[in-house]
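Hi F.,

I've been meaning to write this up properly since the lab meeting, where we talked about keeping a consistent format for the predictions we share between groups. The idea is simple: the sequence comes first, exactly as it goes in, then the structure tokens exactly as they come out, then a line or two of notes. No screenshots and no reformatting. I'm using this chain as the first example so we have something concrete to point to.
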Amino acid sequence: MERVAPGAKRFTLGARERRGLVALDPRAILGVLAAASAVAFMSKSPAVELALVASVALLQALCGHVRMALGYLGCYGALWATLTFVFPNVGGIAATMFTISLTFSRKVFLCLMAGSLLVAECSVHRLCAALARLRVPQVVLVPLTVTMRYFPTLADEASHIRDAMRLRDIPASARMECFVVPLVMSATSTADELSRAATCRGIENPARSTDTERLRMRAVDWAVLALAIAAAVGTALWGGAY
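Output, unedited:
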């Protein structure tokens, strides 16, 4: 029998460390994101919209992302105050253009909150495992997996290029060229490397692959999913109008 030293944490392969009071399954967060996408362009009163934003912020805090929740609440408050008190008293084409842009941002604000929670809670591997459990076809899952791994790698390459430019003291007039050209070359090589790595790992194998992720929908996941569906249905029926 395996012995664990007193005070030591037992490590379980595929288990996820809990950050907050709840640790949601990726499928539950995907359900919240789908509900937020459905609610985004529904007619709803400001009170209903505020209640929805506060609910998602509460979910973020319960998952251990308190700073994220407070940041989104502050951004929503600033966005609402700007659209309510500032732009109505300012005329001109520029104010109209900004009003349209900020109004669109306000409509998709719930999607941004749910998407940020998904990114913070789930790694690429864990998210792809959840999508595979949802029977997402390989023709969709494989490009999505490669894309999600491509952009973080490209961001690292851009950071390395900026560090090299600082070491060489590149003048401001040549920084754009010295940044874009290596980044384009790196983007091409990164795509080839990811493609070869995926092929070596058997991404083209038609057989079902094994996974170490221990995904399981628990009572709290079903409760969050049910509340998200109820919020979408309630907003559609009794959300009011702007």
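Notes:
The mean pLDDT is 81.
The chain has nine helices and no strands.

If this format works for you, I'll send the rest the same way.

G.
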